[in-house]
């Protein structure tokens, strides 16, 4: 009986141990599976993180690129704007230089014309202005007398210009004399006119009366046409040259009777 | 700031006035004027200049002779010389350059051109 009881107890214990062992084995199996699953999950998460991180960085880079592109465009716009301003300034500078050149020419023309009472000197100054400022190579100054005859003054050593009567039949000169209007050949007309034909006629006027004309026949080789400055100089010569000549002639006529300086000073 | 000294040799008062008018736009510039080559040479021997602007066609002593004398005198052979020529007179211009002129300006002259050449010669 006892033996049977003992063997039955051992058997029961063995069964119990086996059960515990089996459970332990199952639990271990479960732990291994869970471990495997977690490792897999960790790998999954790591992969996901690896995939997601560059996407964020990429987005950041894209945003930064967009900002840089925008800045670049802004800078390009500013460069364009500055270049336009630069061009405007350059054009304005050229305009101011041209104006300055014009004013310098007009100032010097006026200054020189009224710098003397000597008729010879005035004629020489007119010639200088036409040659050096306008660039006229051949020209003549013709004065008209009360009979409508043309007189060409020639400079001589005595100070009195020698007047030579000349025949003038040029229609443009006659028109300028009658109408008191400048005539200046256009670039197209300059090409078609022969070297002996007049290229510009400037009536010399005092008080609305034409006392003579300046006739330009030929320009210097490098001068293709008349410029705006030339036209302004012609306008100025038309009035001031005539006035300077008249003043010098009147002064010359009166100087024998009145001492100009004394007469002038006695007024003050 | 140092002062630049320029000698303008030109017989025509109109041209001389125009050249001086243009050059006056350069700051610290002292201008001396002469009506012909002899007058120019006298001024050159009496004082130091940084630039000479001279016409070619002048009485008594023309610009070509002046350029030649300047280049052959150790005292002022290094002074830059600008000659003023008439466009048609290419022979005169070439002779002036051959004699040692540094630059030329043709008539009718523009104030901007005088200024540009003077600044270039003075290194401004």
* Uncertain segments of chain B: none
Distance between the termini of chain A: 174 Å
Shape of chain A: rod-shaped
Q: Give the strand tally of chain B.
A: 5
Q: How do the SSEs of chain A run, as a string of H and E? A: HHEEEHEHEEHH
Rg of chain B, nearest Å: 13 Å
Number of strands of chain A: 6
What's the mean pLDDT score of chain B? Answer: 90
Q: What value does the Rg of chain A take, in angstroms?
A: 54 Å
Question: What is the general shape of chain B?
Answer: globular
- Please tally the helical runs of chain B, counting DSSP H or I stretches of 4 or more residues: 5
Describe this structure in words.
- The complex is a heterodimer of chains A (268) and B (124).
- Chain A has helices at 2-113, 119-134, 171-179, 187-192, 228-255, 260-265; strands at residues 136-144, 150-154, 162-166, 183-184, 200-206, 209-219.
- With 268 residues, chain A is of the alpha+beta class.
- Chain A starts with a helix and ends with a helix.
- The mean pLDDT of chain A is 83.
- In chain B, helix 2 runs parallel beside helix 3 (63-71).
- The relative contact order of chain B is 0.20.
- In chain B, helix 1 (13-23) links the parallel strand 1 and strand 2.
- Chain B is built from five helices and five strands; from the N terminus they run E-H-E-H-E-H-E-H-E-H.
- Chain A binds chain B through residues 97, 100-101, 104-105, 107-109, 111-112, 115, 125, 128-129, 131-135, 137, 220-223, and chain B through 12-15, 17-18, 21-22, 86-88, 106-112.
How is this fold's topology laid out?
The complex is a heterodimer of chains A (268) and B (124).
Chain A: H1 2-113, H2 119-134, E1 136-144, E2 150-154, E3 162-166, H3 171-179, E4 183-184, H4 187-192, E5 200-206, E6 209-219, H5 228-255, H6 260-265
Antiparallel strand pairs in A: 1-2, 1-6, 2-3, 4-5, 5-6
Helix pairs in contact in A: 1-2, 1-5, 2-5
Chain B: E1 4-9, H1 13-23, E2 29-34, H2 37-46, E3 51-55, H3 63-71, E4 81-86, H4 90-99, E5 103-107, H5 111-122
Helix pairs in contact in B: 1-5, 2-3, 3-4
